[in-house]
Task: inverse folding
């Protein structure tokens, strides 16, 4: 099947949906979602969106907080661009009908780790879900938006695939996972909004959709990727055998939650003078240190001293979920562990969301805009989605679309049905386990070299499988995960210092030289 649109959006989170709504007034848009529109990482975001909305706050303070958290690796121009557009992004969401939490003085602003002021606007403790629930019905109702749910992009269609030297994207090959058919989608412009790669690790707060698809596809199309070594481990993921990837929001610490050992004593003041309000990388390393030092399965986050009424008002969803599991957070501390949470690096782009390949844009967690530097400041992620999605839309609409060449349909003439699917599940497990063990919160040269050796063996095996058998949802994700894992490891090996989220025992000091780790993609690899 061959379909043509003005713009193809791959991914259905906040970046993808906000871009689709803005574009739909002007052109024909297709939005590809691996599952339903609602099933994205954006919907899992609890804390809120950071923006300067209080007269006591300032643009300069928000920029400085972002740079401090990012260990000064942040691109200053990109950081200023995002922060200065923060208020407008929030106003757009309010216009769409997002019901942000209010108090007697107006919209309630909370404070999270690394912020010097209250600037996080939120909808109780389920901001991402509230934003998604507001935008998704509008996307579904838009006449100019074609929604392709249960579709997963296989690869971008570039000049290289057409046998030309034109470094341009003309759409993508997409698998309809419900009927097994590969659809060829032509588009003058394509926006990658696929999110991050948390599922490359054994423990993550991310949904199953976060498999690095956009990053891997862009790399194969010839785009640069940068700073992939900076994987943010959220300090507080719920530790419970029946809880899968349930995040305990940064805002719990922002509102006074205390991290404690099993004996009830605090430990964060020994690691950082900011205590529980230190940036995530410091808190995650502190928890990791205490767990390994004492042989603990978890530590505890205690907010019970704030009282039942306060907790029910500010954290109704966290309270309800914990109560389902037998934990009453109004009286008991919450068992927590660090887990892979956010990919701070990604596809290199400019302030318009443009990548190295013509007609190909990126927004959201799949990108490396320069905003996050070596560590993302809490609640800057949804803000980046909104600002760069709008920037990409404006650039797309300002330029004359390139004519589409004749696109070849997907060729399955030389492949057969897979004979042993167990290969996929085995490789998936092996990859995620050695990434957790060797490329986790604390790294060494020896571990990284072991990981690189293993990932390259897996990559060859998966490539052989991909070349000989029909594609499936799991095979596409595994192919992308193993490539993304390799990019993370290669970047980590190149960074011979400890900075932000990358901590090396071999290079514990932070270098005076501030540089990005950039890898250049090769078409078809």
Result:
């Amino acid at each position: 099947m061959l379909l043509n649109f003005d713009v193809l959006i791959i991914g259905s989170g906040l970046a993808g949906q906000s871009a689709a709504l803005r574009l739909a007034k002007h052109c024909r848009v297709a939005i590809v979602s691996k599952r339903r529109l609602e099933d994205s990482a954006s919907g899992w975001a609890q804390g809120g969106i950071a923006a300067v909305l209080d007269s006591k706050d300032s643009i300069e303070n928000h920029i400085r907080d972002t740079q401090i958290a990012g260990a000064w690796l942040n691109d200053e121009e990109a950081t200023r661009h995002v922060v200065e557009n923060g208020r407008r992004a929030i106003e757009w969401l309010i216009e769409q009908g997002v019901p942000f939490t209010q108090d007697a003085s107006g919209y309630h602003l909370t404070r999270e780790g690394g912020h010097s002021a209250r600037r996080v606007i939120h909808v109780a403790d389920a901001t991402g879900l509230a934003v998604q629930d507001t935008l998704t019905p509008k996307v579904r109702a838009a006449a100019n938006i074609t929604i392709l749910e249960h579709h997963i992009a296989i690869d971008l269609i570039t000049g290289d695939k057409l046998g030309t030297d034109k470094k341009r994207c003309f759409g993508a090959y997409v698998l309809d996972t419900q009927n097994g058919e590969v659809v060829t989608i032509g588009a003058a412009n394509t926006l990658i909004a696929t999110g991050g790669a948390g599922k490359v690790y054994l423990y993550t707060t991310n949904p199953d959709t976060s498999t690095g698809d956009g990053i891997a596809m862009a790399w194969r199309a010839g785009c640069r990727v940068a700073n992939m070594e900076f994987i943010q481990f959220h300090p507080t993921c719920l530790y419970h055998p029946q809880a899968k990837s349930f995040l305990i929001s940064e805002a719990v610490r922002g509102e006074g939650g205390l991290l404690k050992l099993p004996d009830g004593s605090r430990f964060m003041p020994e690691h950082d003078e900011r205590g529980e309000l230190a940036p995530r990388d410091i808190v995650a390393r502190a928890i990791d240190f205490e767990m390994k030092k004492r042989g603990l399965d978890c530590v505890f986050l205690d907010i019970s001293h704030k009282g039942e009424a306060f907790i029910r008002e500010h954290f109704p969803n966290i309270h309800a979920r914990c109560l389902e599991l037998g934990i009453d957070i109004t009286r008991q501390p919450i068992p927590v562990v660090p887990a892979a949470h956010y990919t701070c690096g990604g596809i290199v782009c400019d302030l318009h969301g443009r990548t190295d390949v013509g007609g190909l844009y990126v927004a959201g967690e799949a990108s490396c805009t320069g905003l996050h530097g070596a560590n993302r400041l809490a609640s800057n992620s949804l803000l980046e989605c909104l600002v760069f999605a709008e920037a990409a839309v404006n650039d797309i609409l300002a330029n004359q679309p390139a004519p589409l060449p004749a696109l070849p349909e997907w060729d399955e003439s030389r492949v057969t049905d897979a004979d042993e699917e167990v290969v996929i599940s085995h490789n998936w497990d092996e990859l995620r386990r050695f990434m957790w063990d060797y490329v986790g919160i604390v790294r060494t040269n020896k571990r990284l070299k072991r990981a690189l050796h293993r990932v390259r063996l897996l990559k060859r095996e998966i490539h052989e499988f991909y070349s000989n058998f029909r594609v499936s949802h799991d095979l596409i994700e595994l192919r992308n995960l193993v490539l993304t894992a390799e990019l993370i490891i290669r970047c980590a090996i190149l960074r011979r210092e400890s900075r932000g989220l990358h901590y090396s025992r071999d290079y514990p000091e932070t270098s005076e030289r501030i540089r990005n780790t950039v890898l250049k993609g090769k078409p078809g690899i």
About this structure: The first strand starts at residue 2 and ends at 10.
